[in-house]
Design a protein that fits this description.
By secondary structure, the chain is α/β, with parallel strands linked by helices. It is built from 5 helices and 5 strands. The longest helix has 14 residues, at 18-31. 39% of the residues are buried.
């Protein structure tokens, strides 16, 4: 099972609030079999403890430590919100990346995603990608670095 695949990418999503956005990202992970349905609630719980908004238009919701048992395999989902979603930061989140990490993968995945988004050119490529394949290419390139 791939960490990221086309069925876990939504390019033109709309959400009324950050919780709806987190549920969208989480449900992609559930549908793909990476996590049990209860993991999405743990993603919401994490958001209530501390915002997963990273700045630069990026939010990376993930479950709490207690949610580890709900993860069956490592996976990422990517949801792009062209109109943005308020995550309580100084600007809206335009990209929401759901993460489920099995074993000790968590920090490595967060680091890889963060590295992709430290590059303005990569952010622009994600925002302007016209299809799921372009998004996959950006992340596969960045995840191998």
């Amino acid at each position: 099972m791939n960490i990221l695949s086309k069925d876990k990418v939504i390019l033109n999503a709309k959400a009324n609030d950050k919780y709806e956005a987190i549920r969208m990202a989480g449900n992609l992970l559930v549908k793909a079999g990476h996590v049990d349905a209860g993991y999405v609630d743990k993603m919401i719980e994490r958001e209530e403890i501390v915002s997963t908004y990273m700045g630069g238009g990026l939010a990376i919701p993930h479950g709490t430590k207690e949610a580890k048992s709900l993860v069956t395999s490592t996976g990422l989902s990517i949801v792009r919100f062209p109109e943005g979603v308020d995550f309580g930061g100084d600007e809206p989140a335009f990209i929401v990346i759901g993460i489920a990490a099995a074993g000790g993968d968590h920090m490595e995945i967060l680091t890889n995603v963060a590295m992709i988004f430290t590059d303005d050119e990569s952010i622009e490529r994600v925002m302007n990608a016209s299809n799921e394949e372009e998004i996959l290419a950006i992340f596969e390139g960045g995840m191998e670095a």
